[in-house]
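Hi U.,

Before I forget, here's the chain from the pilot set. I'm dumping it here mostly so it's searchable later in email.
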Amino acid sequence: QVQLVESGGGTVQAGGSLRLTCAASGRSFSEYPMGWYRQAPGKEREFVAAITSSGGDTYYADSMKGRFTISRDNAKNTVYLQMNSLKPEDTARYYCAATPRGVTGPYDYWGQGTQVTVSS
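Structure:
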């Protein structure tokens, strides 16, 4: 069992930055690939980024590539999402997820999410 708690969301102006944090608890965090997803009102949940258990490889959705960076600190049981050059269309609730399988998922464990709002 893995428990995930996201934090760091808020309201920022377009072009600004936020750093989301996912605090994890569990027996095998360092063995779990991690991902970030987001969901806006009326929209389907969307893949944002993923990272392998060691942090050696990262993956991004095309719209996030070059703006967002996923990272992890296994010593602290945390995963981060650095978001730069934010756009109003990035407004969504962002969820941290963990998978006991490979980095492609499926992702079985989810946090409650943290809201990100980007204003014009």
